[in-house]
Design a protein that fits this description.
heterodimer; A: mainly alpha; two-stranded antiparallel sheet; 20 helices; 74% helix; B: mainly alpha; flat; disordered C terminus; NADH-quinone oxidoreductase subunit J (chain B); membrane (chain B); NADH_UbQ/plastoQ_OxRdtase_su6 (chain B); transmembrane helix (chain B)
């Protein structure tokens, strides 16, 4: 196995992110400065993002049999890096007054991003597993970052224990598949399973265990129980990271796994995933109805949104790839915006986050622009026209109708109707008259800080995609999955 | 060598079950060591001696060191010594000894049975094979596994750091100070 310069160029984003982590670590060893750590991280992530242009010129290229850098992975790498940049700007404002050491956060973020980058370009179960672990392990630390806060520590421990369980399921499933097929690469698995062995009990067990493991990471029902607690307990920037980067990466690799190793045969796997999708839509939306905490609401709504996304996975033909990418992009922009507002209201750090809807009562009369941003995000999550969420949902509908998945289309309709209720409830709260002095509020100069600017930009982006989605669609259409050579 | 595989696997399952069900951490560790040795035996029986040796050196060895560290750190005086004695009473050694004994018998049978009881079928995976694989197609994974360890280390450092503000003293003195504090809260 020789690595030539074009291989190294293809690995540039991954290497730049890893080097950033090491540089931040060395800088911290020399002198701690929150500003320097954050700046170095942002520079590193931006450099990695810029290097994607170079990577685009050598793609598609296979770097070792484990990693395939194609336009598909470049698209998702870009999404991950942008989401990570947004999270680190949010974290900067949030961590400024944390009564603890702040620099480790950026190292953990970098490690996690590296895992995500590996995951979206993996075409082998080994790189899938290492990528998944590299992404989730630092997340335990990030979720428990403000560990003096009981809820944050609880979120970290809960996520760690359940995630380790899920990894064990995944690993055991992989082992069973390997025992049956003798290969770990996605295409090899597809080829050997397509022949005869799909009905073997071991393959069924192996695929089932893998579905459990990946379903946990995607937090689809019935493996969703951790989601609201972790979203609520983790610091807001971490919740944003968890809801965007980890979901993008896992979904992208799942999509690739499905395209390269399609579960043909009698399609029981499709039935299982369709059921999970339907269950996620219903359960996520129903449980969100009565919540009083905005972070929990977004957590439950993320379960429902993953359910919608799984529709594209079930279809997995025709428009499915494009629809999944567009839906993910719009969902990520929206979720980042929503968590961004929560972060701004909760920062600088003053104990547990301002998550309760009560804290947002009458926000409009104090911070009209910030309220406008949150309103746009809620409308987008609900999928109202003129926002990005509508475009995504439109694509999901198209895919569902095209593949004649009527049950799932019905689920999306029902879910959207239910969703409208609780998103509107949040919006109504924002515009109510608040009687007493607010307990938590964004700083007066929020719009002049990087986090505030980022949130405003996201709002503009969500609106722009909703009105003029063509550039995004063009971008996504270029990104196809490359078969391994 | 199938009997060796199944026997060692059974020992591993039983001892791991006891790891989970033990109330006492020291007892759980004892069974954990047995379990790791049994897994090493499984590797040997399957024809992967390098993995088996690594399992012994890294896991059983490292766990032993961990064990020693735990005992050292809990060494807080007479009460603790008595407590440790109650943890490590001879009865506790029976279970692990039986399990390890089974494996010893198994090894002796495998070594000295004549004619040879059975041979390992399938490919032998030696250290060179593992090395070639790790630094061939899997080289990226080796590098990224180090990032994984870095992430774990930073997490452990952040969460495990003891940042109660203590006046600057030399290390031994602060250790004694700490020990005294602990004893104070215990009594």
């Amino acid at each position: 196995m020789n690595l030539t310069s074009s291989h190294l160029i293809a690995l540039l984003p991954l290497m730049l992110v890893c080097v950033t982590v090491v540089i931040v670590m060395l800088t911290v060893a020399w002198r701690r400065s929150h500003f320097v750590s954050a700046t170095l991280t942002v520079i590193g992530l931006n450099a990695a993002l810029a290097s994607l242009i170079l990577v685009g010129q050598v793609a598609p290229i296979q770097v070792t049999p484990l990693v395939m850098i194609d336009h598909y992975s470049i698209l998702y790498m870009a999404m991950i890096l942008i989401a990570a940049l947004a999270c680190s700007t949010l974290a900067y404002a949030y961590l400024e007054t944390l009564p603890d050491q702040r620099d480790e956060f950026y190292m953990l973020l970098g490690c996690s991003v590296a895992g995500g980058l590996l995951l979206v370009s993996s075409q082998h179960l080994t790189s899938l597993f290492i990528g998944l672990e590299l992404m989730s392990l630092p997340l335990y630390g990030m979720a428990a970052y403000a560990f003096k806060e009981r809820l944050s520590l609880e979120a970290g421990i809960k996520y760690m224990v359940l995630s380790a369980m899920a990894s064990a399921f995944l690993l055991f499933g992989m082992a069973l598949l390997y025992a049956e097929s003798g290969t770990l690469s996605f295409t090899g698995l597809g080829a050997s399973l397509a022949n005869d062995a799909l009905h073997s009990n071991w393959v069924v067990a192996g695929v089932g265990l893998m579905v459990v493991g990946l379903g946990f990471k995607l937090s689809v029902a019935p493996f969703h129980l951790w989601t609201p607690d972790v979203y609520e307990g983790a610091p807001a920037p971490v919740s944003a990271f968890l809801a965007t980067v980890s979901k993008i990466a896992v979904f992208a690799v799942l999509m690739r796994l499905f395209s390269l190793a399609p579960a043909t045969g009698d399609g029981w796997l499709h039935t299982v995933i369709a059921l999970m999708a339907l269950l996620s839509m219903v359960v996520g939306n129903l449980l969100a109805l009565m919540q009083k905490n905005l972070k929990r609401i977004i957590g439950y709504s993320s379960i429902a949104h993953l359910g919608y996304l799984l529709t594209a996975l079930v279809a997995s033909d025709g428009l499915a790839l494009e629809a999944a990418a567009i839906y993910l992009a719009t969902y990520v922009a929206t979720t980042l915006g929503a968590f961004g507002v929560i972060t701004l209201v909760s920062s600088p750090y003053k104990g547990s986050d301002a998550g309760l809807l009560y804290h947002y009562r009458g926000l409009f009369w104090r911070r009209p622009y910030l309220t406008a941003v949150l309103t746009v995000m809620m409308l987008s999550l609900a999928g109202i026209p003129m926002t990005a969420g509508f475009i995504g949902k439109f694509y999901i509908f198209t895919v569902g109708v095209e593949s004649e998945l009527w049950w799932l289309v019905g689920g999306v309709v029902l879910g959207s109707a239910l969703g409208l209720y609780y998103y509107l409830r949040v919006m109504v709260t924002l515009y109510l008259k608040s009687a007493d002095e607010p307990e938590r509020d964004a700083p007066n100069d929020w719009a002049q800080q990087v986090g505030g600017l980022m949130v405003l930009l996201l709002a503009a982006l969500v609106f722009l995609i909703g009105v003029y989605p063509q550039p995004l669609i063009d971008l996504v259409q270029m990104a196809g999955i490359q078969m391994p050579i | 060598m199938e009997f060796a595989f199944y026997l060692a696997a059974a020992v591993a399952v039983v001892s791991t079950l006891r790891v989970v069900t033990s109330i006492n951490p020291v007892h759980a560790l004892l069974y954990l060591i047995v379990s790791l040795i049994a897994v090493a035996m499984v590797f040997f029986a399957l024809g992967a001696p390098f993995a088996g040796v690594l399992e012994i050196i890294v896991y059983a060895g490292a766990i032993m060191v961990l064990f020693v560290f735990v005992v050292m750190m809990l060494n807080l005086g007479q009460a603790a010594v008595e407590q440790e004695n109650s943890w490590l009473n001879p009865k506790m050694w029976i279970g692990p000894s039986i399990l390890v004994g089974i494996m010893l018998v198994m090894m002796i049978v495998a070594l000295f049975a004549s004619p040879v009881e059975g041979t390992i079928t399938g490919e032998l995976i030696d250290a060179k094979g593992v090395g070639v694989a790790l630094f061939g197609p899997y080289v990226l994974m080796v590098e990224l596994a180090s990032m994984l360890l870095l992430g774990a280390l930073v997490t452990a450092y952040h969460l495990g750091r003891d940042d109660t503000l203590r006046p600057a003293r030399d290390m031994n003195e602060s250790r004694q100070h700490l020990t005294r504090d602990h004893r104070g809260t215990r009594q």
